[in-house]
Amino acid sequence: MNDPRGSIWRIWDLHIHTPFSALNSGFPADFDEYATDLLQRAAAMQVAAVGVTDYFSAEGYKRLREILADDARLTALCGAEVAEAVRRVLFIPNIELRTSTIVRSPDGNDRRVNFHVLFSDEVTTEQIEEDFLREVKFTAEGTPSGTDEEWPLTIRNLETLGQPEENLDNESVYRMLVPCIKKAKERRQVIIVTHNPNLAVVCDADQVIYCEMDKPGGNRITYTTGAIENPVINRHIVDVLEGTRPAFDVRDAKYKLVDT
């Protein structure tokens, strides 16, 4: 770009995460609210380019592009003046890939090596997902089949990795998934969010964290932690995972009838 003023310093911020980054929880739940704040800040600071960033995904960039392409929606969210300003901003997708490589920084702390892949705004999200992300493979360790597998880097596969019991019946969870988790516990810390008693109890969790939301009290969340043997934690496990003690006793009685 030729400019009679010569070289011009412009503000570029190529590392702006969206609510679709699973490890960033400081965003509003509503994407429109997030987008409004981002666009207003970009206009106020006269930012020339923004790298819309997510881990392993272009979902946040896709959603932002939908807003930018809809003049009526953009104006309704930001106002006519901000909408006009952000139309001059370059928005590009930035895919952040987290790796298992750890390096020691000068301050003595261990840090994970991440890679950022930036694409032109002329590349569509469909091209990124089909021609790039699907071609990138990651190792799913301890899958229900009992082996490590190479999976394409898609949102569905990442969700499956995070919810291994989602599509398995209880017998399959007990037979295939529980042994994998027990084996993994021998060499690493395993943190699981689940409603399945087989994973919390049969896997012999060292610590259980019970979460409770007080909706009438402004959605305040409280946490109670302890071992399975702790009476308070034990009662929460029975209530949440087994459906309360009476329900558990009814099932137990019926199973005994079948055994006899």
Description of the molecule:
By secondary structure, this protein is α/β, with parallel strands linked by helices. The protein has a domain at 1-135. It contains 10 helices and 8 strands. The strands form 3 sheets. The chain has a 4-stranded mixed β-sheet. A two-stranded antiparallel ribbon has the order 5-6. Strands 7-8 form a two-stranded antiparallel ribbon. Strand 3 (90-104) and strand 4 (110-118) form a beta hairpin. Helix 1 packs across helix 4 (80-86). The longest helix is centred in the last third of the chain and has 16 residues, at 170-185. The chain is elongated and about 90 Å long. The relative contact order is 0.07. The model has no long low-confidence stretch (mean pLDDT 83).
Number-wise, the strands total 8
* Cα radius of gyration in angstroms: 24 Å
Distance between the termini: 85 Å
Residue share in β-strands? 15-25%
Helix-strand topology string: EHEHHHEEHEEHHHEEHH
Give the rounded overall mean pLDDT: 83
- What is the helix tally? 10
Uncertain segments are: none
Q: Can you list the strand order of the major beta sheet?
A: 1-2-3-4
Helix content: 25-40%
Task: State the major sheet.
Answer: 4 strands, mixed
Principal-axes shape call: elongated
